[in-house]
């Protein structure tokens, strides 16, 4: 009995789909951890120092030179507690400053927040368009604060 290529592929896809189904009760916890993705596509550094962005979650990094601009892509990690923040944040640092940036997935507006320390409850919203996910421009202001705006 010959099996068509289409039937074989359909069977493999069906099997893989069944084997990847979440365990019972996982749907509730998975839906609680969903948020819109916030993608940093551009950074404007208005400081007279170079600024490093280091994402703890996957160890990715980039540098923005003093009074300069960077373009690329870095997703902001989701966190909703100090425990999660330990590994799920972006450290933004320069010669005399350090900030931690994360997206609060428990906030209904998917708010991006930052803090000087790993203290979830002390984090403040990034001023500007820091809700709803999407592509963003982050500005490191001359006073060391951050602001955010939507881009294309």
Structural commentary:
- The chain has helices at 5-19, 26-32, 82-85, and strands spanning 38-45, 51-55, 60-64, 68-75, 78-79, 90-94, 97-104, 112-115, 124-125, 134-140, 146-150.
- The strands form two sheets. Strands 2, 3, 5, 6, 7, 8 and 9 form a seven-stranded mixed β-sheet that branches. The protein has a four-stranded mixed β-sheet with strand order 4-1-10-11, with no helix packed on it.
- Mean pLDDT is 83; it is low at 3-31.
- The chain has one domain (35-150).
- It contains three helices and eleven strands, in the order H-H-E-E-E-E-E-H-E-E-E-E-E-E.
- It is globular, with a radius of gyration of 20 Å.
- Strand 8 and strand 9 form a beta hairpin.
- With 152 residues, it is α+β, with helices and mostly antiparallel strands.
- Residues 131-152 are annotated as: Disordered.
- Residues 142-152 have a biased composition (Polar residues).
- Keywords: Signal.
- Residues 1-26 form the signal peptide.
- InterPro entries: TAT_signal (IPR006311).
Which key terms come to mind for this protein?
about 150 residues; disordered N terminus
Write the layout of secondary structure elements.
Elements: H1 5-19, H2 26-32, E1 38-45, E2 51-55, E3 60-64, E4 68-75, E5 78-79, H3 82-85, E6 90-94, E7 97-104, E8 112-115, E9 124-125, E10 134-140, E11 146-150
Parallel strand pairs: 1-10, 5-7
Antiparallel strand pairs: 1-4, 2-3, 2-6, 6-7, 7-8, 8-9, 10-11
């Amino acid at each position: 009995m010959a099996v068509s290529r289409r039937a074989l592929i359909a069977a493999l896809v069906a099997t893989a789909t069944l084997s990847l189904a979440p365990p019972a009760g996982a749907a509730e916890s998975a839906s609680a951890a969903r948020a819109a993705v916030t993608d940093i596509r551009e950074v404007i550094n208005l400081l007279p120092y170079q600024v490093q962005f280091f994402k703890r979650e996957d160890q990715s990094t980039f540098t923005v030179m003093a009074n300069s601009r960077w373009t690329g892509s870095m997703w902001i990690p989701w966190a909703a507690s100090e425990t999660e923040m330990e590994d799920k944040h972006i450290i933004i640092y320069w010669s005399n400053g350090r900030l931690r940036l994360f997206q609060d997935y428990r906030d209904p507006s998917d708010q991006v927040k930052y803090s000087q320390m790993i203290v979830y409850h002390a984090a403040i919203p990034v001023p500007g368009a820091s809700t709803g996910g999407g592509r963003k421009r982050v500005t490191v202001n001359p006073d060391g604060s951050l602001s955010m705006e939507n881009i294309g």
